Each structure stands twice: as structure tokens, then as C-alpha cells.
Task: inverse folding
């Protein structure tokens, strides 16, 4: 999860999030190189006496500064499109969960099980136990199995909400009357926190999201106890 004075992204917990981090790093490197060249040229213009200042035509230079940026943009776009395809693709999900946003809590329904649903409210600050995080804890955590492709169906009962888990690269709008879809797979067990990311009223900041990932056998034991 995020911590104080953090300047980068949260640690990746899914394959797609790792791809996004690699794309960010490579794009940032390209931007740094371009910025270095531009600053170098500006410094030459300011502090040195350039030759050929009266040149009116330079076809070779114009061709180079047209083709080179186009190639760079195409390389970035190709990798971006690949990741977008991976994010939208759903390959045989083993578990489907329907998530509904309300003012101001979340409800979850495990559609692969009969009558398996619950509501999740934020735990008030006065009721927190030692080690729990303020404004991020729920009374009912969403328990999932790690290394399992999971499909989230996201909607809303009232106003616009947004279901977001930064470490899993998920941010999907919850829109009344519309069902959005997101996929997630966690590569390791743990607790992953998120919050509603769409202003939805006076208690917008009191809609945390907590996902708890376990190995498959622990998830099966938990689901058996809950049924």
C-alpha cells in the first residue's frame, strides 16, 4: 500500500500492473533523453554563437525531426495498445463477483455461490484495533484466492462511484443502470487497499475497499464457513 512521501507507484501485485510499470519506466526514460537534448540545444542557443544562423532550407534536418518522433510515438503506442488489450481481455474467469456502490458503502455478491453476499462499511476511527489503518478498514473484507482469474462486475444503486485498487491497476466506474467489467489476478497473498475514486457525496472519503487474498485451499475453507 502507499506510504508517506512516496513518489512512485505502489508495488505491483499482478502481471498487468508490472507491464504498466515497465511501460511507465521506458516512457519516462525516452522523455528524459528528449528533454536532455532539447535543453542542450537551448543552452547552445543562449550561450554560444551558432553558425549557419541564416540557413533558410534544410531538408535533411526537417526529415529527421519528422520521422524520428513518429517512430518513437509508434513504439510507445504499440506497447500501450498491447497492455490495453490485456486489461480488457477476460480469459475463463474462475470466480465472478458483483460489486454494487451505495451511499456510502459497498456490497459484494459471489455469483458462483447461492445466496452469498454481504455489505462492507468503513470501521469508525473509534473502533479501530491496534495496527489497523484509519479510513481504510472495512467490517467485512472481500476474501479472494490468489493466482486465480477473477471477474468483477461493477455497478451502482444510486450515484456515480468508482471502484479502485491501485496496486492491482484497477479503476472502474460504478454507474447506475450500467454494468462495467474488470479482471484481476493477484500473484501473492496479502491485504490490498483502495477507495472510492469518484466524488459521490458528503461521505465519499468513507468508502474504503479491502481485498484479502489467500491460497486457494484457505479460500475454499472460508467460503465453506460463510455458506
Result:
Amino acid at each position: 500500500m502507499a506510504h508517506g512521501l512516496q513518489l512512485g507507484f505502489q508495488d505491483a501485485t499482478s502481471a498487468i500492473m508490472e507491464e504498466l510499470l515497465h511501460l511507465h519506466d521506458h516512457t519516462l526514460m525516452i522523455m528524459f533523453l528528449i528533454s536532455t537534448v532539447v535543453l542542450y540545444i537551448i543552452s547552445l542557443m543562449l550561450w554560444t554563437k551558432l553558425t549557419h544562423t541564416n540557413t533558410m532550407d534544410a531538408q535533411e534536418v526537417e526529415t529527421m525531426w519528422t520521422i524520428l518522433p513518429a517512430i518513437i510515438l509508434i513504439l510507445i503506442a504499440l506497447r500501450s495498445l498491447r497492455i490495453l488489450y490485456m486489461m480488457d481481455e477476460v480469459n475463463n474467469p474462475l470466480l465472478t463477483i458483483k460489486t454494487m456502490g451505495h451511499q456510502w458503502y459497498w456490497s459484494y455478491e459471489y455469483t458462483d455461490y447461492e445466496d452469498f453476499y454481504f455489505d462492507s462499511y468503513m470501521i469508525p476511527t473509534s473502533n479501530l484495533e491496534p495496527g489497523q489503518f484509519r479510513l481504510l478498514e472495512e467490517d467485512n473484507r472481500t476474501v479472494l484466492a490468489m493466482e486465480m482469474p477473477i471477474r468483477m462486475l461493477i455497478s451502482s444503486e444510486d450515484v456515480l462511484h468508482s471502484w479502485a485498487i491501485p496496486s492491482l491497476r484497477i479503476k472502474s466506474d460504478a454507474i447506475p443502470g450500467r454494468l462495467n467489467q474488470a479482471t484481476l489476478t493477484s500473484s501473492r497473498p496479502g491485504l490490498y487497499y483502495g477507495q472510492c475514486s469518484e466524488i459521490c457525496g458528503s461521505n465519499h472519503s468513507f468508502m474504503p475497499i479491502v481485498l484479502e487474498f489467500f491460497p486457494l485451499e484457505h479460500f475454499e475453507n472460508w467460503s465453506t464457513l460463510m455458506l
